[in-house]
Amino acid sequence: MHAITIPEPGGPEALVWDEVPDPAPGEGEVLVEVAAGAVNRADILQRQGFYDPPPGASPYPGLECSGRITEIGPGVSGWEIGDEVCALLSGGGYAEKAVVPAGQLLPVPQGVGLTQAAALPEVTCTVWSNVFMIAHLRPGETLLVHGGSSGIGTMAIQLAKAVGARVAVTAGTKEKLDRCAELGADILVNYREQDFVEEVRKATDGAGADVILDNMGAKYLERNVRALAVNGRLAIIGMQGGVKGELNIGALLAKRAAITAASLRARPLEEKAAIVAAVREHVWPLFAGGHLRPVVDRELPMPDAAAAHRVVEESGHIGKVLLITPQGAGDDRS
Length: 334
What we know:
The chain is α/β, with parallel strands linked by helices. The protein is built from 10 helices and 15 strands.
């Protein structure tokens, strides 16, 4: 098969479409013929040499994919050859074939095309696990999403609205904020021109956000605590704004607030399987009901992964950037 390899860490040009050995499923795994993968910022960090795959994972980038099952390993039940699926991966999504633990498989949801389903596993699992399983967002509460136009952000808006929450978002352009509003965001903050702490307080009559989903880390830490409501929960899922920040414990205590931090890639298989099962139970029916949809900025051929990385690094995209394999190019994406 072919896969995107990284012979040496570096810029987008470090991504090389090359012939590599075919993978084979082991105990509890299936082999998927990949139709599409999706670009995540973790892939960029891996390409740069800053985020190695966990032990035993595929060396190729790619944390999610969609495709068809072509082989089933020992000990797997509930899946058949030919099933159309999407999958949460620890690596290997930028390839024509991928081995997936059966617990990390999801059926392609009703109303979503096979290639566009590649936009779903990472964002749905990240949002559901952090915003709902950990931070326990409830109907009527306010969720603040930083980077509202990102893949994570666009899914967080839709899921929060589907359960009856109010949503505030930050983004850097009017176009991005307009798209967030189309998805249901109620409070729109241009972080280049406005202070999100002030805007969220103003829109909530001084109360603040009950839950904040943060991809920035250190840069926003102090302001996020100020933006929290009493009993608020700050869920940190990224560190685009740095890794070391100063925390006023007194401010946190005064609000009886909580801060959590979580990632998906390095979690044990059983934890990932539990998250995937929860997503299948609670999130997948919302696609059939028309409450959720994948938001895809563009689709590029997988051999042109370097171009896709440039798009994501420039941050002009809205939603997900997909990589379509040669065999996935003919699939219906409606």
